Each structure stands twice: as C-alpha cells, then as structure tokens.
Amino acid sequence: MSMIHLTINGKPVDAACEPRTHLADFLRETNDLTGTHIGCEHGVCGACTILVDGVPTRSCITFAAACEGAEVTTVEGLDEDEIARELRAAFSKEHGLQCGYCTPGMLVSARDVVLRMDAPSEHDIRVIMSGNLCRCTGYVGIVRAIQGVIADRRARGIAAIPDGGRSRLGPAGSGNASAARAAAGSAKPSAAPVAKAASQQPRAAARKDDNWKPQTTFEQSFTVAHPADVVWDFFGRVDEVAACLPGASLNGAPEDGHVEGQIKVKVGPISAEFHGAADITRDEATRTGTIDGTGKDKRSNSATRGQIRYAVKEADAPGQTRVDLSIGFTLSGVLAQFSRSGLVQDVANRLIGVFVQNLEARLTHQADGGSADSAPVAAEFNAGSLMSSVIIGQFKQLFARLFRRK
Fold first, then answer.
1. pTM for the full model?
2. How far lies 378's CA from each of 71, 245, 388, in Å?
3. CA atoms lying within 13 Å on the CB side of residue 29
4. For 2-197, which CATH superfamily applies?
C-alpha cells in the first residue's frame, strides 16, 4: 500500500491504495463517487471519463498512484458547473439518454467540446465524441444537445477557448493543475473559465518539452549545388523555406523564433490540413538548427508533433552544400495508421525530394537575379501517387529478396 494525495472535486484527499489500483476503482470504492461508471475496462467505451488536471481522462486505465498531486473532477463535481448544467438540460430536451450508463462520461467529454470548439459541424462533433460509446440512443439526440448548447452560448457572446484554457497538456497526474487553473482564470477545476476577447487570445504554442520522445525517427541527407553560406542564410528565411514545402503556408511573419501556419496533405482519398505552430532555434557558430512543431487537422481529428534538427555543411565538391536532417514525429488520430508502417518514411523521403527540387530552383532563381516574390511556389502535396510508387517499390524489393533466396 502507498499513500496518495489528490484533490477530488475541490477537496483534498489523502488515502492509501495499491499501486495497481485504477483511478476509477479508487473513486468508486474509496470515495463512494459511483457516478464514474466502469464499462469495458480497456479505455474504449468512455463511460469512465473524468477530468484530471482539467483534461478528459479514461479513469479505468489510469493508475490512481500516477495521479499524485493532481486535481480530479468527477461528474459529481460538475453539479454547479455552468456548461454541465446546460448540457444536462439539453440532453433531457433532446432525449440524449436512455439507460444513462454512458451519460456521466458523455457529459464530461461533451463539456470539453463546448468549451474548446467554436462552431463545430455535426461531423466534427461525431468525430470528437467517437471515444464515448452509447448502446441506446443512436447518438442523434446527443449530437443535437451539444450543438444546441454551443449555438446558445455563442449567441450569448460566450466564445470558445482554444485548448480549454490549458497552456500545456500532459498525461494524467502530470502536475499541470495549477497551470491549467491559471490559464483558465478559475480557482476551481469544475468552473468554466471566462472567455477572453478575440484580440486577447494568446498565440498558439509549439509546447516544447525536453522529455518528449517521438514514435518514429529517421535520418536523411541531401546535397544542393550552392555554397554553404547561401544555403544557411536561406534556411534563416522561414517564409521562403515554407514556400519550398508543398502545401505549406504561414499565417504571418515569424516573431522571436515562433511561427504559425498550416500544411495541406492528400493521402489517397484522405485530405488533411494541419494547422499549428513551430518554435525555431538556430546556432550560427555550428550552422545547426531545430524546429519544434505541433499541428492538428480538425476534419480527421488527427494531431501531430515533431522535431526537425538540421545541420548545414560544406560538401566534398567545391561550391556544394550538404544538409543533414534528423526527423522525429508522433501522429495520433485517424491518420495515425500511416505512422505504424514503413510507408510513412518512404513518403517523407519523397516529400523531402520535392522540397530539395524546389529549394534548388529557388536558390538558382535568386542567384540569377530574380526576386523572392517572383520565385515559383510549391503546389499542394498529394501523396496518392507517391503511395502507389512506394508500394510498387516495396513489392519489387520483396520479389528481389525472394529470388535471391532461390
């Protein structure tokens, strides 16, 4: 047994529990908070969803001991919450519940949607709520209830708060409760933060974390027929670098190494547009740089986080430059299926190849006296044909290995 110290629904709790005890069991058996329902016990159905440090969390797959020092809010702690009260009324009006077993977790997740999303479509709501399963209603009433609450709040001038007022996200029990409260402007985890005016909204952050480790990493190098000084200076002009990347565009000029923008990508029938931000650092002495970025595609509810490290060096041939890349990234959501295979690296290699071609063309254009404004702009990146060539290439490699064995 070990002692853990939590704040549950605004009250400090000190209790002993086994290290293997799940948070859902701890809440129900030790604290009699039976509004947290346990369904699949695999983190799939969403019935056990609660707030940990302001973040919706599956309590059936979260160890209570991992939440040391965290602030936990169950459905009971949302009795006086403004958004939860409006959602309860809307669920009743729209017949968004029958047996009610899924409802506590559904309300917690729906509250997060109302808090964060400005004007989501029915499709957006269905995607974002897809982690909460209901075997009774068919979801129609649930979606209507959420849409109704959002429309009513926006009509009253209550704007959505990006990321729910949280300036930093993390796993359950990551100690972000105080930061979340400060960002939300509320001392209680159950109270909805007051929305800021649009002009006062903080800029997006790349959320750099030295402890973050990517799911996928690979190395790549390329050579361009231009001097190292020219290439290094070019990499410092972020807007021109973005113009060489197919489908990429910036929202404005970089400020203090921070830039916001988006990139459009097509993979077969899937079209994604990742909106995000990046923090850029450069070391003039070593000619190395780092790009830490995050992005999210609202349509597929996919998110990505990545880091690119690059080094600009003189190549063996005079007047040429070698650029070494180290790329690491994590992809979640619908598009995460592509990161679980070797295809993503092959597609990334081809994307880098297109980038290098555009880089060469742009440097040559400027070397010939052309302006940056008149340089060619990269088109939207369509990975459909690339995926086909990748698959064909892998089949060729497979048959080559088979014939060698014979």
1. 0.47
2. 47, 6, 21
3. 11
4. Beta-grasp domain (3.10.20.30)
In DSSP notation, 290-314 reads EEEEEEEETTTTEEEEEEEEEEEEE
Strand partners, 202: none
Give the pLDDT band of residue 27 (cuts 50, 70, 90). very high
Positions of CATH 3.10.20.30 in the chain: 2-197
pLDDT of 153 higher than 90: yes
pLDDT the model gives residue 265:
72
Taking CB atoms within 8 Å and a gap of at least 24, the contacts of 218-221 are 218/327, 218/345, 218/348, 219/324, 219/325, 219/326, 219/327, 220/324, 220/325, 220/327, 220/348, 220/349, 220/352, 221/322, 221/323, 221/324, 221/325
Q: How far apart, in whole angstroms, are the C-alpha atoms of residue 404 and residue 103?
A: 59
pLDDT in the model for residue 246: 78
Maximal C-alpha separation, the chain: 75
Report pLDDT for 213.
Answer: 75
Percent of the chain's residues with pLDDT above 70: 74
Report the share of the chain in percent with pLDDT over 90. Answer: 39
Helical H segments across 19-102, by residue range: 23-25, 31, 82-93
Tokens 């400005």 found at: 118
CATH topology of domain 216-405: Alpha-D-Glucose-1,6-Bisphosphate; Chain A, domain 4 (3.30.530)
Domain ranges in the chain with CATH number 3.30.530.20: 216-405
